Amino acid sequence: MKIDEQLLKSYSAEIRTYKEKEAIFHEGDSPSFYYQIIEGIVKVNNYNEEGKEFIHNILGKGQSFGDAHLFIDKKYCVNAYALKPLTVIVLPRKNFINLIKENPHVSLEINACLSYRLYFKMKMMHDIVSQNPATRIIGLFDYLKSYTDCEDQHSFNIKLTRQQIADLTGLRVETIIRTIKKMEKDNLVKIQERKICY
């Protein structure tokens, strides 16, 4: 979901920058802003009791994050970090709610976006319990591809490292490498200059 930047600015949105690995918000913080990425990559994660990281999402240009928390009176249950130098447009929560009330078409688009995310999150959770590593990986790739207009086979460039794919699917890096090689043989993906195209 991308809200027009001029519309955001008309409701007093500001541009902020973050350095690589800098935190944008932490688990337990109160949601105060709508965030939309202008440039860079954001990782949304949390950690279990043993300190093992669970990555919920990796987002890029034009995507928003943390917005679902703005509609409920709950603190963040995730962290957000800049994976690369990041530029975002931020809008205070109160202004965001006013924007939605005064622009019903934006409200409908946000509802559709949140529903779409929930659909693919549920589908990904279904795939992640599979014992078949390829099913888990394809579930993740379908989820990531759903945020784009890419429809053709092998047209979507997976901008994740093998380690990040492992973290997102709960598999070991060695399993990811082996399975992706098999997926390439089965023509499910193409590898071009070590980049995965799905």
Automatic annotation (TrEMBL):
Q: Which Pfam families match?
A: cNMP_binding (PF00027), HTH_Crp_2 (PF13545)
Q: What is the lineage of its organism?
A: Bacteria, Pseudomonadati, Bacteroidota, Flavobacteriia, Flavobacteriales
Q: Which PANTHER family does this entry report, sorted A to Z?
A: CRP FAMILY TRANSCRIPTIONAL REGULATORY PROTEIN, REGULATORY PROTEIN YEIL
What's the name of the protein? Crp/Fnr family transcriptional regulator
Which region is the signal sequence? none
Which UniProt keywords are listed?
Answer: DNA-binding, Transcription, Transcription regulation
InterPro entries reported in the protein's UniProt record:
cNMP-bd_dom (IPR000595), cNMP-bd_dom_sf (IPR018490), Env_Response_Regulators (IPR050397), HTH_CRP (IPR012318), RmlC-like_jellyroll (IPR014710), WH_DNA-bd_sf (IPR036390)
Which CDD domains does the record associate with it? CAP_ED, HTH_CRP
Q: Which residues form the HTH crp-type domain?
A: 131-198
Looking at the record, the residues that make up the Cyclic nucleotide-binding domain are 16-100
For whether the record's keyword set contains Membrane, the answer is no
Q: Which domain of life is it from?
A: Bacteria
